[in-house]
What we know:
Largest sheet: 6 strands, mixed
Bound molecules: pyridoxal-5'-phosphate
Number of domains: 2
Shape: globular
Strand content: 5-15%
Strand order of the largest sheet: 1-2-10-7-8-9
Number of strands: 10
Amino acid sequence: xxxxxxxxxxxxxxxxxxxxxxxxxxxxxxxxxxxxxxxxxxxxxxxxxxxxxxxxxxxxxxxxxxxxxxxxxxxxxxxxxxxxxxxxxxxxxxxxxxxxxxxxxxxxxxxxxxxxxxxxxxxxxxxxxxxxxxxxxxxxxxxxxxxxxxxxxxxxxxxxxxxxxxxxxxxxxxxxxxxxxxxxxxxxxxxxxxxxxxxxxxxxxxxxxxxxxxxxxxxxxxxxxxxxxxxxxxxxxxxxxxxxxxxxxxxxxxxxxxxxxxxxxxxxxxxxxxxxxxxxxxxxxxxxxxxxxxxxxxxxxxxxxxxxxxxxxxxxxxxxxxxxxxxxxxxxxxxxxxxxxxxxxxxxxxxxxxxxx
Length: 357
Ligand SMILES: *Cc1c(COP(=O)(O)O)cnc(C)c1O
């Protein structure tokens, strides 16, 4: 007979042992030869065991739930997720022998649904992204389970001072670069957890690094950042999975964000195609959003004669989007013509100049 406390101790030990077997993710240079004084890097979060930056979040959320006494030996674990978080949480749930159910919009990419199932998770489908929260809470209530609620807990489950969070890892890996303290770090916002961690970490360590959030143009986050009274948008926020929301999530902390760029989906997808080709591997749509904002910032810095580094995030593996943003038929059905945007981002990588809009 194991006691509750013994099981929690065992569970934390399993997660820590998994971490101990894992390597850190690479920081990849993204060369723009025409801009010798500006260095762009991508933190490759696709190389985590579950393929995205949500691997870090899922680990933190499970540790948080275990240490808070919310997750016990027989607790069904439920999450509201557009996919990536659920894939990573399914991995940790299986590691601990727990039932896991993801509440996902039915528009979620099939490859992500397959990945959740691959790790032993179940999917509960709802019509639209706005419905996932309530559906997840009531499912957890019905099952006597735990609703993880990444959107509320992302910013507090992550140890923002350090403990190998993404910010600490980036600054450590930048140490031997020509401009070791990034001028800008660019990321997206889904939960808002990544931007909160990086913004707090930079302040706490007194680095003169600014945080730019690259947001889909349909998302509420940049509207809220500009005017705090805006709490939601009625239209769906677009087709870049993982980022852009209709409601301001509790984990999005606008006060630690220095700049926001609203990026049209066609630009994000074009940049995802372009950077995939330049790196020789496929990246997801939100990486494209980040890269488009990096290009704007780099061109801007060059014009003002500034030198320095820009770090952004390769959020997930593009293989997950073979039947969406990398499928011509899918793009056509969505009415997305990315040819002009593709020429523009290619022009940036070739010449270092970039005209926004
Ligand atoms: C969640 C997610 C993001 C944004 O990260 P947050 O920390 O949740 O703001 C970006 N890209 C992808 C693919 C994601 O799944």
